[in-house]
Please model this.
Amino acid sequence: MSEIQTTVDSIVDQYQADPTGLLSVLQDIQAKMNYLPQEALERVSERMKVPMPRVAGLATFYSAFSLKPRGRRVINVCMGTACHVRGAPLILDTLERKLGIGIDETTSDGEFTLLKVGCLGACALGPIVEVNGEIFGQMTVTKADKLPDKLLKEDRGGTEK
Amino acid sequence: MTADIATQAQQETVTFTVNGKTMQGRRGDSLLKVLLHEGYDIPHLCYHEAVTAYGSCRLCLVEVKKGRKTKVTTSCNYPLMDGIEVTTNSEKIRKHRKVVFELLLAQVPNSPELQSMAAQYGVTDTRFEKKYQDCILCGLCERVCREVVGVNALGFMGRGVEKDVGAPFKQPSKTCIGCGACVYVCPVNCIKEEQLPTKRTIVRWERNLPMQTCKRCGYPFAPTYQLLQMQKQTGLPWEFFELCPDCRDVKD
Model:
């Protein structure tokens, strides 16, 4: 059995393969593997006795799921109305140029994935960028340009003890 | 005991009015189903009595007055209840339907079926930007495949402007049995089937299937996968499916 199948099986077993737990299973797989490989979805369908179109339908419906591998950090640029009028498109442009990737793409080193979101609900801090749950408010083009390097540096400082 | 059954039957039957005419029907039935049965001409694309109502085409709009409130609602997924007053063809309804036709025409401008339906309401063009799709995303194919055929080869993928109907991941279908139910049921005729002597292709799902030839007369009568599905559902021996329906009746 492949590694993916073993991972999926252990998660499916936690929910006793109950079809009502489908969404939770997909969330757990996404959290563990950073994306939903097709092989994993096929295994879920087989183990939970849920038809494949239903599994694939759910997996493609929610933006929390990704069918492509995501980077270690997911950068969410808020494009909600408030952030938009405060210059979010410029922030997005800057990050796209800095990282050399477009929306919904991942850098070749697997560090960053760039996404845009509707609204993060913290409009007073706009324009906002969110990275793996951490909020960076009142973004400027200058700050956005330095953000990826800053994140990489922080991470290195944190992990290399 | 008999009184109980009588009250139960009374509860089941409801009285309502349609365009002022009093009618009776069974509680919970689809309003559109009843209206069509009574002969009212209500346009609809996503409804078929063989499957669950879905309410996506928005054409079967009617006005329903319940108590003191009147609302415009889709009739296909409106359950019949006591005392409702239904209006099927008011000025308001016609106006709403016209807009819905325009929206559908914007999505699928080149469907003769849709064009002729819209023309009946005087809609020949749309004011909205044309998207030139061929599918209205009514989901009939998906529901028929799931509820009637029982194969579950289709589903909705994505959402919003990216929503699409088809096999998982927009790849060629791996599970379609080639029965052609979706081809038959599609209201805008966008699922095409190509029939060759030895194979059948469901073009939209990119599914190529070999035909089973009758053991006796040699006529390719159905896709093998469809017969396998039928065998699974009926539990009949495979020998039964080796003969075409005509040869089955012939006694040796």
Summary: The longest helix of chain A spans residues 141-159.
